[in-house]
User: Which sequence fits this backbone?
């Protein structure tokens, strides 16, 4: 016995076709929008304005309005972050004075976007409280731990020069902060050159004494950096990031205790200790002026003269002009 299939009335078929077509158009438009959306890859460290910016979530809507999404990547310090920028793995990040210079010596990729004012009290040379070392000159023949290529590398250079020594008069021991602290605490090194908040944590630990900080020796600027190609092709996005950092800076400047509480879980340092570090920090992101550019060039020339970087680097040629 044959069974007849009932035809679907046209009055029901057309609405279904329209719904299917509308769904197809919606999916197509959504895929096209995602295809056109670009990504800004931001490298950040556990401590600093960028990690605050990430936590507050205020950058994402600013960049979404410009057709960008944000991808965040954490780095343990400035040198590996700069290596990632050179390799094209990140588009924007921050570091102290020395890491960008080493990065420029390796590749002509980097662009200086902005900086924070000098904060010389935010880094120091530490010795154990019981140490017989009373001045930088007493470091002759001693083992000094530091993170190679970090901002404190220049502090060590300037401090020993001011004391009439050279790098040949000491034994540098290149260690990351966590390893350097362990070596310092067990007496494997005689001194430790370090920046905040590790500096503040070491002070709070009770066994560290400040031999000298950066006052009168180094400016200790924090720089915001991108690649030249990204800066040339994504000016509005960079301007939006700088504006978002400025907003966080303005809030953080007057709310150091709140900032300390916010950062404490990610940094792994108690909030009261972070508050000490944050009060030594400076705020107010701004473009590089001639004075800051010359100071950074002086640092670069010093490292080249010491043969710590293989060639001269041009700081002014790597500075992004506002709005470009």
Assistant:
């Amino acid at each position: 016995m044959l069974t007849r299939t009932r035809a679907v009335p046209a009055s029901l078929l057309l609405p279904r076709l329209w719904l299917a077509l509308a769904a197809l158009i919606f999916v197509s438009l959504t895929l096209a929008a995602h295809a056109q959306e670009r990504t800004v890859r931001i490298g950040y460290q556990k401590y600093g304005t960028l990690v605050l910016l990430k936590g507050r979530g205020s950058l994402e809507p600013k960049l979404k309005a410009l057709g960008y999404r944000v991808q965040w990547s954490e780095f343990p310090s400035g040198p590996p972050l700069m290596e990632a920028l050179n390799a094209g793995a990140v588009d924007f990040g921050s570091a102290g004075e020395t890491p960008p210079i080493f990065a420029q010596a390796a590749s002509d990729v980097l662009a200086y976007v902005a900086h924070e004012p000098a904060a010389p009290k935010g880094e120091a040379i530490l010795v154990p409280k019981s140490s017989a070392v009373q001045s930088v000159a007493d470091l002759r023949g001693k083992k000094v731990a530091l993170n190679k290529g970090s901002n404190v590398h220049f502090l060590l250079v300037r401090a020993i020069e001011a004391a009439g020594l050279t790098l040949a008069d000491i034994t540098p021991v290149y260690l990351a902060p966590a390893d350097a602290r362990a070596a310092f605490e067990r007496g494997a090194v005689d001194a430790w050159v370090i920046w905040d908040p590790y500096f503040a944590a070491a002070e709070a630990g009770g066994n560290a004494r400040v031999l000298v900080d950066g006052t009168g020796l180094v400016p200790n600027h924090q720089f915001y950096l991108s690649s030249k190609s990204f800066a040339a092709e994504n000016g509005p996005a960079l301007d939006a990031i700088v504006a978002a950092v400025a907003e966080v800076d303005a809030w953080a400047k007057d709310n150091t205790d709140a900032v300390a509480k916010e950062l404490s879980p990610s940094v792994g340092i108690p909030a009261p200790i972070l508050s000490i570090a944050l009060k030594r920090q400076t705020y107010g992101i701004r473009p590089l002026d001639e004075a800051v550019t010359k100071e950074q060039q002086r640092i670069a020339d010093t490292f080249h003269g010491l043969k710590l970087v293989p060639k001269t680097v041009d700081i002014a040629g790597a500075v992004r002009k506002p709005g470009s």
Notes: Residues 36-117+221-267+281-311 form a domain with the D-Maltodextrin-Binding Protein; domain 2 fold (CATH 3.40.190.10).
